[in-house]
Amino acid sequence: MQLNTNILFLIALISMLSTIDAEVRLDSIEYARDWNIIQKNKIEIKWTTYNGYPICQTSSVLPFSIQSISSIIEDVKNYPRVFRRIHKTNILEKNIIHVMLDMPFLLADRDYVIKYEKSKIQNEWEFTFKAVQHKKAPLDKDYIRLINAAGKWKLISIDDNQTSVSYIWNGELLGDFPNFALERAWKTQGNEIIHWINDALD
To answer: Residue 3: which residues within 8 A CB-CB, separation 6 or more?
Structure first.
């Protein structure tokens, strides 16, 4: 009996560790190499393969304070007013939200459930998130669930009226999205995100 109990415990432990290893962790993404440049002008967009996932980054300098930009990013309830591909957000509990996305015509809509954290050190501010499961957000047949969603906003204050803005995200779209169109989608998303923040504060 004791042997069976030990075996069950070992199986549960292995399963738990496998789940942890499967998470998309972006802790050290700044040290990633071999980035593929998609666009390089006022908005720089690039991507790389990191831990088996296509990780994208868009970055720019915006003429607003770090406080004004961070207030937009942390106001998750009002994301649909700023980020126009998001048509709904549900706050499930503290720091956990369900996000629903409109996709272009003929493509199934996407959704994801994430847990986020915020941190600030001197003139830097970060907002990181990763996918979680939640009983209040069951799978919906009308959406493709992005089970590996993960990302990070990083803001660095240059002065009172200028802030370096970087957004990193897992570019995996799953479902019926064709691989040949991914880079074009990442370019579109990278530009839209920066423009929408700029428009919200302009």
So the answer is: none
As a whole number of angstroms, the distance between CA 47 and CA 37 comes to 7
Give the CA count within 13 Å in the CB-facing half-sphere of 52. 6
Q: Is the pLDDT of residue 136 over 90?
A: yes
Can you read off the two tokens belonging to residue 9?
């415990």
Q: Which of 83, 60, 88, 73 is nearest to 156 (CA)?
A: 60
How far apart are the C-alpha atoms of 115 and 162, rounded to whole Å? 29
Map out the domains of the chain as residue ranges.
Answer: 28-201
The shares of helix, strand and coil residues in the chain, as percent rounded to the nearest 5, are: 30, 40, 30
Q: Provide the b/e sequence for 115-154 (b: ≥16 CB within 10 Å).
A: bbeeeeeeeebbbbbbbbeeeebeeeeebbbbebbbbbbb
What span, in angstroms and rounded, lies between the C-alpha atoms of 71 and 166?
A: 15
- Taking Cα atoms as reference points, which of 71, 46, 12, 3 lies closest to residue 190? 46
Query: Against a cut of 0.70, is the pTM above it?
Result: yes
How would residue 176 be classed by pLDDT, with cut points 50, 70 and 90? confident
Q: What is the CATH number of domain 28-201?
A: 3.30.530.20
